[in-house]
Predict the structure.
Amino acid sequence: MTLSEKIYQSAGITLPAISTLFALIVAYYIDPYLAFVSTSWVIFGLLGMSLDIVWGRGGLLSLGQTAFYGMGGYFGSIVAINFSATTGNSIIWALPAGAIFGALLAVILGYIIFYARMGALQSTILTYTFTLLLWSVAQPFKLKVGEASIVGDSGLSNIPGIIIGFGEEAESLAPNQALMAVIIIASILYFVTRRLMSSHFGRIIDCIRIDHEKAELLGYDVRKYQLLNFTYAGAIAGLAGTLYALWSNFLSPSIFSIQEAFLPPIYVLVGGLGTLAGPFVGALTIGILSFVLGGTAGGQTTLILGATLILLVLFLKNGILGSLDLLWKRFLPDPNAAARNTNPVKIDGDTLKEILKEAEQQAGPAKSLSTNDLFKKFGGVIPVNKVNRSFIPGKPYSLIGANGAGKSSFLKTCVGMYKPESGSVHLSDLDITHSAVFERVKNGMGVKNQKPQIFGDVSVLDNLWVAAYSRTKQNQQALAVSHKILNMLGLEEQSNVAASALSHGQQQWLDIGMVLCLAPRVIFLDEPAAGMTKEETRELSSLIRILALHTTVVIVEHDMDFVRTLEGDVTVLHQGKVFAEGDIQSLRKDERVLDVYLGRRKHV
Amino acid sequence: MEFDYLLTVLLSSLSSASILLIAAMGLAVVFGLMGVINLAHSEFLMIGAYTALTLTKLGVPYLLSIPLAVAFTMLMGAIVEVLIIRRLYGRLFDTMLATWGLSMFFMQLVVVLFGTSTASVATIPSFSINIGEYSLDGYRLLMIAIAALMFLFVYTLMTKTVYGMKARASIQQPQMAQAIGIDSNKVNTLTFAIGCGMAGFAGAILLPLVPATPTMGLAFAVKSFLAVVVAGPVALTGTVLTTLGLGGGASITASFLSSVIGEVFFFLITALLLWLYPFGVSVKWRRKL
């Protein structure tokens, strides 16, 4: 590994650490007025980071961060006004209060957004609505809490400054010291957040952002993770709002205004989405820009900010840090180079059996799956029409039928991606008709959809790890499982390659590997052989036959040659109904099956 | 007397909702036909108002200034589409941010050009209608008819004309539309320009009711924007329903309680509807637009 690579690897820690030190030194020496103004830039950076957690990592463009920021600020200030006299110190009261209040609001709003499974646009709009609601409510709002009095448009004043010392003599910090304190607080929060985002939690959040449907198919309760992430960001925003209140000694409803709501997205975009450190760079850049222009261009900052935003979106999509990152990467060896020399997949029966036995020990014996009068319709189309089928371990089951026969719809209804109108689905004795997808997966269902679903930006090993971790909830065990599957797929050399760099066939294998990591008790595979070579199809066939000895396997397939090699039970679906079943030999002799499958007139 | 009061409240609320509908319709067209949320929509409305205002000051009759304002905002819309929107197709949130930048830009530009003061048109004869002891502004009531006509016009334009079919084809299946020889870029430019022209029309026609100020659009922006998003995929018809429901409801609430409670009502119902219909109320409708 070259020096450049080493530095690159740790850039998220070393560069911010160096910047913090540098900023502290500058903060000590600069002009007090400049120190006062630039304190707000650091606070805005913190607000921007709270959005970056939700947007860059969680994938939701929230326009509600300023709402948490403002409400956190108000609440923290009320607490500070009433309690700081008792200790002399303001921040030990205000900061936690602001953070908790911000988090509390975020839980409520986030619960509505995530548990209703709202669309992306609708989620963004709801956060925006929330902010604007506060804006209109705050203007006439009057309240007196102890010493603190909120007077509508005139806001809340007499907020104590940033006081760090204790006792009677403790006083607000001078501008330079206040700036230093804020820099230290912001940098602690940055490192904590970075730590969180590179932990298991952060990795799962990244996967949910890339493909939340797949994350749920791996058994993660996506809503819970998104809500936690949103809440954490709400706490950061609330804390930032409190810092802002202590800095300005005054708050007014304008903190909830439309103009304010769009500032965090600007900071994030300028700095670089998803970088966590970017919003600080963005806030600093915009701050300096406004400061300089404020002197020369009069009040035209808005004009320039507006134009900047347009240009940013059009031309500098990755922001400052994102662009630097791309530039740096050009001079590093290609991390995906290994994707070019791959070994063919070789399913080693003994290893596979070992893996499956181990899975059986951990996840229990195979389960059966049965449907009872399962019925699903879309408008006038009925893709699943009162299907009664049960699947048990022993031999693989294939579902065949012409296009539109309802194969994939049946599978999706069993898995819970479609909600049936009537009928039931049982996993062994458990009624799962109304369970969420992730609950079914937790109970032992594993699904591979038609298109390979992999987390493209995540490394091959991490793809497998995320799947394994969902079941084991234990890092070491998850690593062990994913390494075993990795070896079986012949992808050891590609373990650090981004999954999107793999070929289509390999992505199929990786997806199958992820399903195996779950050690499912019932496996659904939708056209697993699509896009595979003859050799790969042969390997797949042997994999499925071994799998079927240990678990229940249901396959949707078009490729009749492939179905024949499975030597299993075959169900022919036609117009949403079970048309015929049996082994492939007897079906091949059945005139009716030939009719519907080949499209001869009589039975169509 | 009680009946007169109720009728008055009902009519004035209906006209408030109609005003909101007039402001929101262009937004709905652009969202429904292009999948673009234009946050600068309200600034086009403001530009329309200022155009009409400037023209009437120059001696142009008010009624003539309305089509001129539409033409000007359409032209501006076409330019914006070619310079910005076109480059961001399929990037919903980037388009939102860029158009928001645009809205700040326009707002400040108008402040620079015209200042922040308010000017009104004096050339419109005001008239009122009496219901019992209550009196209602006639021009406000007229907006109900204007909104209905505007809706009929747009609906017919988009569903019955060749252009409308091309526009809907271009958004539903862009590649297929191009494959059968539709220049979807041109169609989209025109659609966006029409949306902006409708905003311009709204600004001009509402001028006697809403004086031109640089921030005049904001009040409409938020509500019309919410109404369109809550409406969902069947944008135009859905928006009629949501503006009447949300706007009318908020206005009735405001008449009986207070204007702040009216606002709160609007936002809370929006949140509730989004909870019930996470992808908009019209998700399962089988209508064209």
